Every structure is written in C-alpha cells, then in structure tokens.
Amino acid sequence: MIDRLIQFAAACRAADLRVSTAELIDCHQHLQCVDLVDEARFKTVLRANFAKSRRDQAAFDRVYDLFFHGPGAGEDESPQQMDAEAVADLFSRAGIGGDDLDAALLDFVTGDPASFLQVLQDLDQQADASSASGVKSNLGQLAGRMQVMLRINAIQRGLARLPDGTGQAPAAASISRRLDQARGLLTRENRPYNDGLRQVRSHHKHYQGLGEQPFSSLTPAEIEQMRDVIQQLVRKLRDRMGRRFAASRRGGLDVRKTLRRAGRFQGVPLVLSYRRRPLRKTRIVALCDVSGSVWSAARFMLHLLYSLQDCFSSVHSFAFVSGTTDITEIFAHNEVNCALEKVLASPDIGFDALTDYGEVFYEFRQHHMHRINRKTTVIIVGDGRSNYQHPRESILAEIREKARRIIWLNPEPEAFWGTGDSEMHTYKAHCHEVRTCQNLNQLIDFIEELVL
Amino acid sequence: MEFESIEDVTCRLERAGYIPSREIATVVFLAAATQKPILVEGPAGGGKTELARAVARCLGRDKIRLQCYEGLDEAKALYEWEYAKQLLYTQMIKEKINDLIAGADSIAEAVERIAEQEDAFFSERFILARPLLQAISSDKPVVLLIDEIDKADPEFEAFLLELLSEFQVSIPELGIRKARHIPMVVLTSNNYRDMSDALKRRCIHLYIDYPEPELEKRIIRLKLPGIDEALADRLVCAVNHIRELDMKKRPCISETLDWAQALMVLNIGELSCQAVSDTLNVICKYRADAQLVRQSMDKVLSAK
Predict the structure, then answer these.
(1) Whole-angstrom Cα distance, residue A257 to residue A273?
(2) How many Å lie between the alpha carbon of A191 and the closest alpha carbon of chain B?
(3) B84–A49: do the CB atoms touch at under 8 Å?
(4) In Å, how far is A170's CA from the nearest CA of chain B?
(5) Which residues pair with residue A324 across a beta bridge?
(6) Could you give the CA distance from residue A124 to residue A138 in angstroms, rounded to a whole number?
C-alpha cells in the first residue's frame, strides 16, 4: 500500500503538483481511518491531501485516472497483454514498419509508450529550437504532428484491409483502440483550469461622450481634452486615497507619547496616543504592447499610472513589440506627455517588427524576473495577438507563481478574443483578472480598483 | 460527541440542517479524526461558512469566528494588552505603590521592588483575548472558523502557521500558550489569491462546488419544508441551466434558496416567464446577468 502511494505521489509531482512528504504521511494516516472498499472515498482522501487548490484538482484528476484506470494500471491484472511478436507480425503483413516512427508506434501498441512519448516531446520542443535560429513559427511543430497523425491513420487503414479469417479481428480492434489513444495524446491540448480568474465585463459610465469613445478613434483635439479629464481624475483619486489611509493607520500604543501627554494632567494618562503604521503600497510592473492598434490604450494607462506614482511603492514599466525595453527611466525623468513621445521615438522598440508575445515573455524572464515578488501586481496591456508564433504561456504561469496578481487589459472587445492569431484564451488561463480596456470609462474603473 | 464513521458525520450534519455530499462528509470525518484544519474553497454562497456552523452544532461546540480582511494583524486576531485598563489601575493603586517603595534607599532598589510586582501588570487580567486566543484557551473544545483567509495579508497567513500546526501561540510576556483542547479549525477561501504552500500543507483541502441537482433538491426541501415538490424540481433545473450561462456571478445554493423562498412568499406555484422575470433580482446580482437570463428565458424555462 505505502509503495503504491509513494509511486502515486511521484506521478503527482511529475504533473507539477506539490506533494510534500508530510502530506504523504498525512494521507497514509487518513487512509487507515476510512473504509477503502468505496473508491469515491479513496479518491476523496487522496485528493484532499494532494491537490490543494481548485487549479490543481484538474491535474490531480488526470493523474489519478491515468494511474489507477489508465493503460498499464495494475500491470499484472491487465485484461489482455498483447503479444509483441504477434503484433509485429500483423504490422509487417499490413506492410507497415521500417522507420523509427513505426517502431515507436509498435512499441506503444504493445505497451511500452516511452519511445512514442519521446517523439511527442521532440515535437513540442521543436518550436523552441527554431526560435533560436531566428525563424519563428510553430508551423514545423504542426507539420510534424500532422505527419504522425497521418501515419497512425495509415496503420489503422492497413490493418483494416488485412484479409480476415486468421482470427486476428479482436487483436486488430484492440490495436486500433491503442492507436486512438496515441492520437488522443497527440492532439490533446493542455489548458490549466483557472477558477480564480476574474473577468470584468461591465463598467460605470463616469463620463459621457469622451469616456465611451474607443481609444483608437480619438482625434488629436480629443487627446488634449483627455489630458484634462485625466488630471482631474488623478486629483480626485489622490484625495480619496489620503482619507482612506488616514483611517486605517492606527497601530499599537505609543507609550512614550502617552506618558508625555499625561504630564499635562498631573500624570494621569487621559489621552492615549497610538503609533502610525507605515503604508503598505503595491509594487507595479507594467508590460505594455506599443504596436499600432494597442498603443493608444497603453499610453493612457501609462499616463495614469505615472500620475499616480506616489500611490504605489514602485512602478516599473516595459514597452514591447517584439522585444522588451525598460521605459521606467524615461518616465522618471520626463513629464508624461514628453515621455510618451520619447518612448515612441526610441529605436530599441522596433516598431516595424511583428508582435511576438512568446519572445517578450522569454526576454522578460531572462532579465527582469527578479523584479517580481509577492507584493508585485503585474499589469499587461495588449491584444494577445502573437502573429501565430509560439505563445510560451508557461512563462506567464511562472510569473503567476511569484507575483501577487496578474491583470491583463485587452483593448479589443471580448468578441474578438481568440479569433485569428489571438492567444487571449491561452493567456487568460494564467491571469488573475482580465478586462477589456477600450475606452476611458473602463480604464478609470480599473485604476480606481487598483488604487483603492 | 466525536464522529464514529463517515456515515455518522453525514447523519449528524443532516440533523444539524446541513446536507453534505460524500466528499464533504469524508473530509470532515478525516479532519475530526486526525485533528487537522480544513481549508474550504469554492464559489461564494456555496455553504462554506454554513459547514463550519453545522459542524459546531452537531458536535455541540461553540463556534468562534475570525473574519479576515486586508490589514488584519495579531492585535485584532490573537490578543491585545488592555493599555487603558493597565494605566487606570496604575493610577488607582498609586498609594500602594508609594507604600511599596517607601523604605527604599535608592532608586535602583525602588525599581527592583516594583519589578517584583511586574507580573501583576502583565497577567491574564489585562489581556484582551481575540478570537484565536479565545479558541485555544477555551475550557470546552470549540470550532474555530477563519473566514475568507484569502482576504488577509500573506504576513498574517505566515503567523497562522504556528497556531495551525502546533495549536499553540507565543505571547512574549507570558510565554507559550498551548491549547487546552484542540479546536476544530475551518478556513474558508474564495480564491481571491492562492494560499501559500506552507499553509496548504497543514490543511486538508475541500472544494465545495455547485451541488448536484439531486442534492440541491434535498437541501431546498430541508430548508423550506413547505415547498411544492414540483416547483422545487423546476427551480433546480432552471438554476442549473442558468449556471451554464456566461455570467459574472453564478447563482449558488444560497441564491437558489432565496429564490425559492421569494416564490413561496409571492405564492407562485408555477415557473412562468412573468414569474421568473419578476423575481430575477434574487438570483442575479448584476444587471448584465439579469439581461442574459432574460435573453435565454425560453431555454431556462424548458430546462429539464
């Protein structure tokens, strides 16, 4: 029993669940308390100990099914262990065999999935390798998958064409089932379950007219007007912020001050005074897509963030198109509008290049990951359109592990998410909050929530 | 009073007015048997807090509740010295203190004499016990509910670790306080943020999802005994369908109950388009959601 449990824990760890030895011990202890005849109960015990958040539960269920119900579970009592030679014979009679892929599939059918899984792993990594050489696309990966899939189909057809009557029909059927499983593995796409995601759809109408107009269709005159509106808003927010913190800053008793005051009343401490607690402010890291259509939203976001800089303990911002540039300095030393001009004129950003979110995240991880800690809120402004390149959402998942929150502002209406080259739904799975941010009213909503 | 088996948990919780799923019963039993805290997650209104209440009722224990919020600190959760009372006492016994140091030759000696009495000032008398200290120093075993732990700061979470694993707290002036009886601890979270691994490791995890239709019907019948069977069935079907819509806030079991009650009060025995439309505010907490339901009214009403 304990051996099986340890094996299962190892399988869970391989699936990125964090299972500690202490949990293993607890689980073992719990299993002795319950009647194990009932499988649902057994699963509940394991799940309560091994999967400790909603997002982990999906992964846990998958591992559980694979481990206890999948092929290879309980090796010795598996209904029909296929005879490797017989299958090889069938394959060769159907005119299949020869190269490595066939051999891998043959192994998979006869119960040794290692080489086929290796093929899949190679396919997955292909995209990463090609991006280093400068040509970036996941077409190679797709083509590779397609090839494997076609081969599986060919084998199934070949087996079906074999003359019947030698009594291999049941064997062929079970081979076919195994091949279906192989195809399932090939086409499966993993997307983590994200229960904590908050999706904000509605907004208050703070300002009529200007407030509702999409950023992308503002005229220069309206942009000027917008500046005034933003200034006014900033003042209002600062006011509210100040009042709010004053109320919640009471700390423990300040003995010295109390005694000093007591002097006035012949040593009777009539008035107690308290220490004031330092403010806890958020650290902000903003990643702004500044390519064509998205820039208009990003600029207002940056404008607001920097006007409210004293409400946060630090604001770091990066602009990107295909590579990231740290624009914190530019904003620190220039007046906001001037800074915006400078960012646009900066040569590093590469306006002509195509947006590549995968590359941006990769660069961010290489150089700026240390800026992220438990107090950091990461704000990403962008449409998630990666021009069909590798999205590398795993890096976003890594950021999520370290940051307090990830908020994604998308200047596109929600109906367009996931259409064409938009990877929004891929990224959404790793964010704490996603919002559309098309016009001033939506932006104001967001900023108010962030600050207050 | 302890639970004997999982069936016993189910049975007693039901008597206390809470119908648990098998998973809930199993986890509650395990937690009680091994004295571990339960970390309950799930959508708002799913009965997380109610579970703690029901457990307290059926174990016949008192429930102590600590509501978490941003900025919650030790002084509000564990204990605080009652400074005002201490100062007041000092004033009142001033004479006594003068007597005490009357014969002292030097200041040092006077200080020494007062120091001997220090314990009188830092004693139980002047401690204001907050929920956590109350829970572990209570004479009888209690159920401690730490509600919405995700709203508290990460620092507070770290501070809870000592309590949850050792069932003791350290008060610098008094030393370590061990729990007289180990409380049954229930933590609830709405997934506002992820809990730290250290905290998760110490707890048994339970996710309370939207209930199965059968279970939901039983809950409605239990909470609203007078309800018409047919209406309850239709209601559960409709709510289950509404949950599938892309809403901002999906109706949970508490909303279903509110809705059923509203319909009963209004004496509506049949779910009609008009009836649903009139009472929609009970289950939809956003205008956009209400609109969404109105749009797919046909499907909601015909849901089986």
Answers:
(1) 7
(2) 18
(3) no
(4) 39
(5) A320
(6) 9
Phi (first) and psi of residue A39, to 5 degrees: -70, -40
B139-173 b/e (C-beta count within 10 Å ≥ 16 → b)? eebbbbbbbbbbbbbeebbebbeebbbebebeeee
Shortest alpha-carbon distance between residue A52 and chain B (Å): 5
Per-residue model confidence as pLDDT tens digits over A151-164: 888 887 877 777 66
Distance between CA atoms of residues A156 and A173, nearest Å: 10
Q: How confident is the model at residue A195 (pLDDT cuts 50, 70, 90)?
A: low
> Given 3-state DSSP classes, what are the helix, strand and coil percentages for chain B, each rounded to the nearest 5?
55, 15, 30
pLDDT, residue B147, reads 93
What's at A348, amino acid-wise?
A: D
- pLDDT number for residue A349: 67
For residue A258, which residues of chain B lie inside 8 Å, CB to CB? 83, 87
Q: For A414-436, what is the mean pLDDT? A: 84
Mark yes or no for CB contact B36/A26 under 8 Å.
yes
Structure tokens at B267: 């004496």
Q: Are B26 and B8 in contact (CB under 8 A)?
A: no
Contact criterion met (CB < 8 Å) for A374 and B154:
yes
What residues in A contact B71, CB-CB < 8 Å?
248, 280
Tell me which residue of A308, A331, A399, A332 sits closest to A360, measured CA to CA: A399
Distance CA B142, CA B185 (A): 9
Give mean pLDDT, residues B260-276.
86
Side chain identity at A124, as an amino acid letter? D
What's the pLDDT band for A383 if we cut at 50, 70, 90? confident
**Average pLDDT across chain A, whole number:** 77
| Whole-number Å distance between alpha carbons of B163 and B170 | 9
Q: How many CB atoms lie within 10 A of CB A72?
A: 11
| Sole residue written with tokens 């919650």 | B72
Task: Count CB neighbours of A34 within 10 A.
Answer: 18
Residue A411 token pair = 């200047």
- The whole model's pTM is what? 0.64
Of B221, B229, B225, the residue nearest B269 (C-alpha): B229
Long-range contact pairs involving B268-276 (C-beta distance under 8 Å, separation at least 24): B269/B228, B269/B231, B270/B231, B271/B231, B271/B234, B271/B235, B271/B238, B271/B301, B272/B301, B273/B297, B273/B301, B276/B238, B276/B300, B276/B301
Q: Do B204 and A272 touch (CB under 8 A)?
A: no
Give residue A394's pLDDT.
86
For residue A115, the number of C-alpha atoms closer than 13 Å in the C-beta half-sphere is 14
Residue A128 to residue A357: CA distance in whole angstroms: 14
- Summarised one tens digit per residue, pLDDT across range A115-173 is 888 887 777 666 555 444 445 555 667 777 788 888 888 887 877 777 665 556 667 77
